[in-house]
Every structure is written in structure tokens, then in C-alpha cells.
Amino acid sequence: MNRSARWWLLSDLHLGVGDEDPRRPGKVLPDFLRREVLQASGPQQHIVFVGDTFELAGLTEDESLARLDSILARHPEIQDALEGCAARGVQLHFVCGNHDVELARPSVAARLSSLLSPVEPAQVRVHPWFLHVPRVLLAEHGHQHHALHRIPELLRTAVSGTDELDLPPLAAWHARPSNSRLSRAGAVARAFLASERAERRVRELAYGELLEAEALRLELGGAAVRDLARLSRFRTMSVLPRTATRMVLAAAGRSIASEEAPAAAGQVARTLETHGSAVAWYVSGHTHRALEATLEGGATRYVNTGTWCSDVRGRGPDQSDRRTFPYAVVDVGLDGATGGGLQYWRPDAG
Q: How far is CA 209 from the centre of its chain?
């Protein structure tokens, strides 16, 4: 980059049409935006929501538009604060997660822009897959590296949403909570087969054209984007035991714990480096475990931005103190040098 900038990154607010979450992310976020982002001065500022900002998945186009309208109407203070940020020149970025993949629809992305920045819609950008800032950072939600949530034909959501896509295995399980376990297991089995078929389709020419178009948007070489897309694949034989383990733990009210940077983070960093596109920071969310670490074999720092909802799964301070909210800051100097990392914010801080 040729000028200084500050990037604020947070994820997994899971804002819906209701406000039942005891942690009240919809009430906390506006205060954070006003007191931290709008009070900051100096470099160009960017806010990045690294996926699962909204509960917005598996809907038709009309349903997606109506749900987005309802969510922001339910949280007017968020809309006002984000609109204030955009009006002040703060660039707003929304990276799609598995819970808000419908944001990638052109009509839904346009609606979000018109609601948050009616005067200058370009102040709001939606990223179907990931956000890339050359030499500085790459931010993606992370569900593409989690086979149970992986959407093989992810870039098709920017064309037709999820109208023509099948649910990932875990989404198929949760989509039928009132059904019998046998019925839900059948839905998961069908989702397995659908994911296998989708993985074959992404190797065809039509999807390759979508990857080439995405490479231009991301300012990355086509070979680098293709290699990044190949890092994760759905493989039934390796996913089956993980699915069974996940379902057993879920029935017992437990989750799989991990306090280390995922292997995929290192693979992403090495792939970018191989193609001469190394970044200083790789940021993701999805796991609800806030974490910062140096990736083995390189200089890239990894940050997971955790969650602002009540489903905290890490062992950081936000687990013991639910009035503590994780986010990341990446500062870029005039010389291109970067600094920052994982931070925590308290609403009652001075």
C-alpha cells in the first residue's frame, strides 16, 4: 500500500431478527463503533466484518432481502452507527460466512450498500470468499476449510445465492431440528453425496471462469487463486468420522476444543508466499475461539477474531468475562510496515 491505513476486524455477531442473545452484540457494537472507530483519527480506516455478521443463509432472493431489512430494522442503532462511519469515509467490508452467505447475492449486497451508505454506496463492499489487501492481509471467514460447513461452489452464491446449491452436511443436520435423528441423518447422508458432486463440478471449466474473474477482483494471480481454492476439499472418507464425533459431542453439549492456529492457516500463508503474494496477516473467524499466533515456517501472523455472541468456545478472557469482546487491528504505515494484533474491548472501559 502507498499510504497509511487502519483495519478493524471482528466477526461472528450472528445478528438476527430477534435480540435474545444474553451478550447483546446488537447493543454493544454501536458503542464500539462510536467510541473506537469514529473517535480515531489519522489514517484511512476500514472496518471488516469477517463473516457470520447476520443470520442470513439458505433463503430465496426475496426472503434474503426481507430478512436483511428486518435485521437492520431490529437493530437501528447498528444501522445508524455504520451509516455514520460510512459518511465519515470509513470503508465498510463484509466477508461472507456460512451463516450470511446470501450477502453475496448482487441484489442483497446492493441493498446492504443502500441501507448503510445511501449517498455513496461504494463505501460498502461485500466479499463472497475473502478480502485481500496486497502484502498486508487476507481475511476469510474460514468455513471453506471446515468440511462440515464447506460450500464447494461458493462463488456461485455471487450469481444466484444458494438457490441452486445444496446444504453442507452440518447445515443439513441443523436445518431439521424438530425431525427425528434418523430423518436428520438421512438429510446429512444426502448432503454428503451433494458435496461430493459439487467438488467434481468445481473442477470444470465453468467454475474455472468464476475463479479467474475472482482473481482479477482480488488482485491476485489466477494460479494463486486456483491453488487457494484447492487447499480444502470435501472427502467423504475423512469427513465421516469427524461428523460422527461432532454429533456425539453435540448431543452431550460439548464441542471440539483447539487452542492452536488451524493447519489451513499455514497452508494459505505458504500458498500466497509461493506465488509471490505473501501477506503480513491472515485473519479468520468461524470457530468462535479468539486467538493470535505466528504461523510456522513464515512471518505471517494469524488472528482469529472470535465471536461477539454468547457461544464463546475459546479460553481467552472473553470466556471468563462475557463483557469482553475480541477484535483485531492491523495498522499500516506509510512505508508499508504493519503492526497490531488481537485486542479486547469492554463497553465500560474509560
A: 23
3-class state of residue 224 by DSSP: helix
- The secondary structure element, H or E, covering residue 340 is strand 338-345
Nearest to 305 by CA among 127, 67, 116, 95: 95
Residue 111: phi and psi, rounded to 5, are -65, -45
Strands (E), 129-172: 130-133, 137-140
For residues 275 and 273, give the distance between their C-alpha atoms in angstroms, rounded to a whole number: 5
- Please give the backbone phi and psi of residue 169, each rounded to the nearest 5 degrees, phi first: -50, -50
CA trace torsion 178, 184, 187, 189 (10° rounding): 170
Do the Cβ atoms of 286 and 97 come closer than 8 Å? Answer: yes
Number of H helices, E strands in the chain: 12, 11
What order of strands is seen across the sheet that includes strand 301-304?
130-133, 137-140, 281-284, 301-304, 291-294
pLDDT tens for the chain, 350 residues: list them: 447 999 999 999 999 988 788 999 999 999 999 999 998 877 899 999 999 999 998 899 999 999 999 999 999 999 999 999 999 999 999 999 999 999 999 999 999 999 999 999 999 999 999 999 999 999 999 999 988 899 999 999 999 888 888 878 877 777 656 667 788 788 888 888 888 899 999 999 999 999 999 999 999 999 999 999 999 887 766 666 666 565 555 555 555 555 667 889 999 999 999 999 999 999 999 999 999 999 987 889 999 999 999 999 988 999 999 999 999 999 999 999 999 999 999 998 75
Residues comprising the chain, all counted: 350
Give the Cα-Cα-Cα angle 309, 314, 316 (nearest 5 degrees): 100
Measured distance CA(252)–CA(255) in Å, rounded: 9
Count CA atoms closer than 13 A to 19's CA, side-chain side. Answer: 14
Domains of the chain: 5-345 (3.60.21)
Name the phi and psi angles at 278, rounded to 5.
-60, 145
Q: Are 317 and 324 in contact (CB under 8 A)?
A: yes
